[in-house]
Amino acid sequence: MTARRTLGALLLVVALAACGQKGKHAESVIHRRLEGEPKTLNALLATTDPENVVLALLERNLLEYDEKLDLVPGLAETVEVSSDHRTYTVRLRPDLRWEDGRPVTSADVVCTIRTLVDPKTPALSRKSYWDGLERVDAVDERTARAVFREPYAGRIQAFNLPLLPAAAYQGTDVNTNPRNRAPLANGPYRLGRWEAGRTLELVRNTQYSGERPGPEMILFRVVPENSAAFQALLSGELHEMRVTYEQKTRLEADASVAARPLIFDELGYTYLAWKNDHPLFASPKVRRALTMLIDREAIARTLYGGLARPASGPIPPGLWPYDPSVAPWPHDPKQAAALLDEAGFRPGPDGVRRRGSDRFAFTLLLGAGSDLQRQITEVVQQSFRAAGIDMAIRPMEWAAFASKVDAGDFEAAILAISLDPNPDLAVYWHSSQRAPNGWNTSGYRNPKADALMDRLRTTFGRDEARGLYAELLRILHEDEPVTFLHNVRSRWGLSKRLEEVRTSPIGLFLFWPGGSAWRLGTGTAPL
Amino acid sequence: MRGARGSRAVRAGLGLIAISVLALLAPFLARSRPWLETARGEAALSAPVPWDPDAVDLDGRLRPPGRGHWLGTDELGRDVLARLLHGARVSVGAGALACAVALLAGSLLGALAGLAGGRTDRGVLFAVEVVQSVPALVLVAALAAFLPPSFFLAALLIGLTGWTDSARIVRAEARRLRSAPFLEAARAAGARRGRLLVRHVLPHALPPALATAPYVLGAAVLTEAGLSFLGLGTPPPAASWGRSLADARDVVTTAPWCVLPPAIALVLLVLSARRLGDAFAERSRIPSS
Amino acid sequence: MLAYALRRLLSALATLLGVLTLVFLLLSATPGDPAVLAARSSGGRPASPEALAAFRRLHGLDRPLPVQYVTWAARALRLDLGRSFQDGREVRERLAAALPATLYLNGCALLLAMLAAVPCGISAARRPGGRFDRVSGAVFDLLFATPSFVLGLLLLLVFSVKLRVTPLFSDPALGPLGVVLPVATLGLGAVALMSRFVRASVRTALDDPAALAARARGESGGAAVRRALRRSAGAFSALAAVLVPSLVTGSVLVERLFSWPGAGRLLADGVFARDVPVVLGLTLVAGCAVVVASLAGDLVSAWLDPRLRDVGLLGERP
């Protein structure tokens, strides 16, 4: 009798355990949110967040950024650099396959690089790293060699590069290739069903030779409206999303909901761009005065709920050249008034400052899309008005706004920038990059700064580079070409069931392992 | 009979009149500068709502209604009631303008088309269909790129597109009336086209079109809210009901005092406009006896 | 009748041409280079000159405007609507994916609005100034004046979050409950306008001398209403024609709120990216719908109400 009962109990336990297992497998689907629809799944042409986030699970890079932003091997076993810093030799891992079973070879590497540098390909930030490529060839099955005309200190970042399958892309027009919507994966997941506009399913890639991911499926859902997505997060139907400050507070306050907040630092900053060659903004003293009129601390404390801090310059804390000794200009309206008086702008009869007959009046362009940005411009408008500066705000639809800003056709604009791990400031501040050639939107020009940035291009030793950066940052601080507003901390809401979530200065997904390490537990495990 | 109808119209219009008066007086009713100051510069008599609509107060943001701020403060610490009053000027004023333009132009064109038939009819119909088929967003983007966004942009948009609705409605009525005996009689008596149009056709054809008037008015404010939602609309710091509605979208549940006042004000506006419209429609109806 | 219909058909084609030309001109004149917009990345960084040139070459943007337009029109006749600037996909494909969803949503909303509006309008017309008239008027005004994003959000909070009877992400595959919220949001907003319109039309028709004469002869209330409805046929079809364009381009805000992948969103994305082929494609469909509805409306009302077939009052033939 006892034996029967023990056996029965044992069977029961086994049965229960089996049920539990089955339950877990059926449940191992992570539900993720996309704010918009991916337009393409071609890893070279992808430009927007929804695209990059999905592709991060489908395609590996030759070299990957890890959590600390160091470059580590990905598809490439090694990338060797010649002593003159002009030749790079890529050696692929031996066991790589595309999802259709074909091996990943150097032919894929060569095809990808050649497609990238082709003038017809509109791939963007990646392209700049490959400027000056002389030639790229396959040395053998697993090795490719690229030779550049000039050495460049940031060149190694070029190898944070995904691959296109040569078999599908050789000889075709990369812009219209149908594989752009049905990509071949070489990463932990491959594309399953894609219901345009609604959902995107990723399933485990059986040909992937790396570590098997936990969830058997990742379901991306397109949810453009924040409030709807948040409700889904609270009920557990969505497992992740970016949250606003108010939503984060709700997550902290209510312990019964299915999600919790996650705060971390990401590389980027917000700023007010002043057109440097505009008569009102030509003098660094005036620009400094404008910065000092804005109470960035108060904005950080109230509008950002403490999740931001005033930015001191173009290098945020988190990038190695950051210099903590350069402090942001303080909020000092009296000093600002003195500076403005010095520059010749004195209060006129209508309360607005003027120099001769020129009133200190201008228009700030505001692009649609960020309520927070709009609120900040309204606060800044009031602060300026109290000091005798008449700033009008012009809200613009994003396309019109982007066109004007890129063309340099504006007086002032509010902008945000998210940086990649390359700290090369020349891209944004070198005089050769002024509109319409590049991204120096404010048109800043300082020959001394230019010289430093040129030297940094070929300075490979970090200690030497740090010294140069310190000098450069000091110059930029004195000149204040734009008003650096804030380094904003990222706010996310995550399901309590998610485990192995790691953060990096470039977000949750664009480094290795990023989202592919996530696992779905039962909900009680702490982070 | 006429007298009773007349007073009903007046009563119905009271709401609209009240809103308009408040809107006109907003700069006096809501401002931080006191009405009377003592010799020493202190406030002897403050305005009933002693807040400027633009005064930002970051540390006092999203305060619920209470002493000092009767309707609370918004996302930047500005007084909700002050913004409501000042916003009325923009919203009601331009909305009324849009409404009037759309109705007048539409009704006249529609009546003309319905009565005349033939080429005139086809011409007006062509214009109506072309304007109706152009997606509103295309017009918005085009207008907003050239004109600085303001409430008048929304009003212009409504005016340019809204006339088609009343044109169609009035045209249909006019067509129906074309062969009515009383019109034949008037024509036989030598009445000219214009007189036929205005004195005989419009009174019959207008009521259905007038029925849409309050909604055109409401639509103007809602369109401006939609524009603000999309990032266009009245530029800061100007207050308008549509702007207040759109800006408060994220705090609908946490700070309803930001959304409810402009929403209720809009409902009252539409309600009183509708009752006024109904009363006028009754009045202009030719007595059956 | 046939000659009339043929002539209307010709003018319909003229209208379509007019609309497409106008939209093309408007969109092309609006500042915003589609090449620049398509190539921009999330980080806020513009594209290289060669990439822009390549994009322009691919989509024919380097040719003069009239040539671009004529090329598009010629292709459109063959039902080839070109390729979207945003992702290079055929416009036909994108429309086929988005239109059914929007037509379904707006069609249901319109039906809901009519089902609610017609009986309410008639009841209100029979007893103007009565309690039902006043109460329904106030309720409908409330629904109308609430912005769609507020109404929709409230419905979502009540039915999907608190009561959990409807899903958070609307999907027709989930049956009627899966679409009821966006349909209700759109429909309830339109009910006010429609019911007041019905009320006004029926009132006018009921006050007509002929109707009064019939009542004097002892005609029942129901028959009077039916007669009034027939007389208002012209006005009703005008109303339908008025509401038809919204069937196609939909409501961007409601689609956004309920994650509904429809033509409204497609249009918004297209306009904001200056994606001329997509916008022209949608306009073509909307224009056809308007024209067809207008034509059908006129024909139906002419059939229902013979008086409308007559010669114009001022001596011109229709």
Please count the beta strands of chain B (DSSP E, at least 2 residues each): 2
On the 0 to 100 scale, the average pLDDT of chain C is: 77
The chain pair with the largest interface is: B-C, 71 and 77 residues
Taking all Cα atoms into account, the compactness measure Rg of chain C is 24 Å
Give the proportion of residues in helices of chain B: 55-70%
Oligomeric status:
heterotrimer
Uncertain stretches of 5 or more adjacent residues of chain C: 310-318
Order of helices and strands of chain C: HHHHHHHHHHHHHH
- Tally of helical runs of chain C: 14
Separation, N- and C-terminal Cα atoms of chain C: 10 Å
**Number of discrete helical segments of chain B:** 10
- Overall SS class of chain C: mainly alpha
Give the helices and strands, then pairings.
The complex is a heterotrimer of chains A (527), B (289) and C (318).
Chain A: H1 2-26, E1 29-34, H2 49-58, E2 63-65, E3 71-73, E4 76-81, E5 87-92, H3 106-117, H4 125-129, E6 133-140, E7 143-148, H5 166-169, E8 189-195, E9 199-204, E10 217-222, H6 226-235, E11 240-242, H7 245-253, E12 259-265, E13 268-274, H8 284-293, H9 296-302, E14 308-310, H10 333-342, E15 346-347, E16 353-355, E17 358-359, E18 361-367, H11 371-386, E19 390-396, H12 398-407, E20 412-418, H13 426-429, H14 447-457, H15 462-479, E21 482-484, E22 486-495, E23 498-499, E24 519-520
Parallel strand pairs in A: 1-10, 18-19, 18-20
Antiparallel strand pairs in A: 2-3, 4-5, 5-7, 6-7, 8-9, 9-10, 11-22, 12-22, 13-20, 13-21, 14-22, 15-16, 16-17, 23-24
Chain B: H1 2-29, E1 36-37, E2 43-45, H2 80-116, H3 118-133, H4 136-146, H5 151-177, H6 181-188, H7 193-211, H8 213-229, H9 241-247, H10 260-284
Antiparallel strand pairs in B: 1-2
Chain C: H1 2-29, H2 34-39, H3 49-59, H4 65-77, H5 91-126, H6 131-145, H7 148-162, H8 176-207, H9 209-216, H10 221-231, H11 233-249, H12 252-257, H13 263-272, H14 276-304
Helix pairs in contact in C: 1-14, 5-6, 5-8, 5-11, 5-14, 6-8, 7-8, 8-10, 11-14, 13-14
